[in-house]
């Protein structure tokens, strides 16, 4: 199979309108359409992410207690969070057949339109859910007949997001998952940190062909790693989502204005250009750990000189 484009990231929450309002007021996302599909058990709003043309943020909410989305919330003790990543594949039937040969079971879907599954190695348990659609339909979240919406004016400062940079997944062995995604879906490794650069973690980043969004894999190192604790609670789940901001001071001022505390701030200088990053807790974003970063010049926060050598 091949994934050739990420279409959206979908967040599942109990209160749809409250979350849409938060993302508009704080993140500067723009609602463009919404739907209420009782037959599929889903309500939702599609939002544009500034600077990320072709990539959207979907906010989903169950329509009633029988909805599959409500069961997902129940299984997660009612906590909102990142539900799935929506992607496009060239041939949906061939993709499903490939997943079956690898022992990957579908968790949801609609024949001929879309299919949902965790694409992590099945022997390690469920990981991030992917919803895959082929040519011929744009719907994969109950959004078969969306209604255009007129976004409301935003009063006050936003974070100044200019791009969705990457999605990060926790796993016990970064190289194993990188090889798996490369073989399964064509992901390409573009950089990695040295094994000993951080005392409690090591990471690498994969490019998703056809998408500006990348995929980071973080693994635990040493004793008492925060990643190992996360993995023991959540398995191979999404750890965080990272956005780039245009103005660091303005972004922090917006966080303060909206009562959002940041933590684990870091900053540095590479080749004479500054970079900074920080995190916002999931309790303040609707269940998703958010990382913000700023760089004075492109390529200094994530260094291209960390691209691994090509084996021959």
Describe this structure in words.
The protein is an alpha+beta fold and 312 residues long. The protein folds into two domains: 5-144, 2,3-Dihydroxybiphenyl 1,2-Dioxygenase, domain 1 (Roll), CATH 3.10.180; 161-306, Roll (2,3-Dihydroxybiphenyl 1,2-Dioxygenase, domain 1), CATH 3.10.180. 20% of the residues lie in helices and 36% in strands. It contains six helices and 17 strands. Strands 6-7-8-5-1-4-3-2-9 form a nine-stranded mixed beta sheet. Strand 3 and strand 4 form a beta hairpin. The protein starts with a strand and ends in a 17-residue tail after the last strand.
Strand order of the largest sheet: 6-7-8-5-1-4-3-2-9
* Overall 3D form: globular
Sheet having the most strands: 9 strands, mixed
What is the N-to-C succession of helices and strands? Answer: EHEEEHEHEEEEEHEEEHEHEEE
CATH superfamily of the largest domain: 2,3-Dihydroxybiphenyl 1,2-Dioxygenase, domain 1
Number of helical runs?
Answer: 6
Return the structural class.
alpha+beta
CATH class of the largest domain: Alpha Beta
What number of structural domains do the residues give? 2
Distance between the termini: 24 Å
CATH topology of the largest domain: 2,3-Dihydroxybiphenyl 1,2-Dioxygenase, domain 1
Helicity level? 10-25%
Average of the residue pLDDT scores: 92
Report the uncertain regions: none
């Amino acid at each position: 199979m091949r994934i050739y484009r990420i279409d959206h990231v979908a967040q599942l929450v109990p209160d749809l309108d409250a979350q849409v309002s938060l993302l508009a007021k704080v993140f500067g996302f723009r609602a463009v359409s919404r739907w209420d599909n009782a037959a599929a058990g889903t309500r939702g709003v599609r939002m544009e992410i500034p600077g990320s043309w072709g990539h959207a943020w979907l906010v989903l909410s169950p329509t009633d207690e029988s909805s599959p989305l409500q069961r997902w919330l129940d299984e997660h003790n009612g906590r909102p969070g990142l539900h799935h990543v929506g992607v496009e594949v060239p041939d949906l039937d061939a993709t499903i057949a490939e997943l079956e040969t690898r022992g990957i079971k579908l968790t949801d879907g609609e024949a001929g339109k879309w299919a949902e599954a965790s694409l992590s190695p099945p022997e390690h348990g469920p990981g991030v859910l992917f919803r895959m659609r082929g040519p011929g339909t744009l719907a994969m979240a109950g959004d078969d007949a969306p209604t255009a919406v007129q976004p409301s004016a935003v009063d006050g400062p936003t974070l100044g997001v200019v791009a969705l940079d990457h999605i990060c997944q926790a796993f016990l062995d970064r190289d194993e998952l990188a090889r798996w995604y490369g073989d399964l879906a064509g992901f390409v490794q573009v950089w990695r940190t040295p094994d000993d650069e951080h005392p409690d973690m090591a990471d690498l980043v994969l490019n998703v062909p056809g998408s500006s969004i990348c995929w980071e894999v973080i693994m635990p190192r040493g004793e008492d790693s925060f990643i190992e604790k996360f993995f023991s609670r959540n398995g191979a789940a999404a750890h965080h989502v990272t956005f780039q901001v245009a103005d660091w001071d303005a972004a922090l001022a917006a966080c303060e204005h909206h009562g959002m505390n940041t933590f684990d701030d870091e900053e540095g200088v590479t080749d004479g250009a500054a970079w900074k990053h920080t995190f916002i807790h999931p309790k303040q974003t609707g269940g998703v750990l958010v990382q913000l970063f700023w760089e004075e010049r492109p390529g200094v926060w994530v260094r291209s000189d960390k691209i691994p050598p090509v084996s021959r």
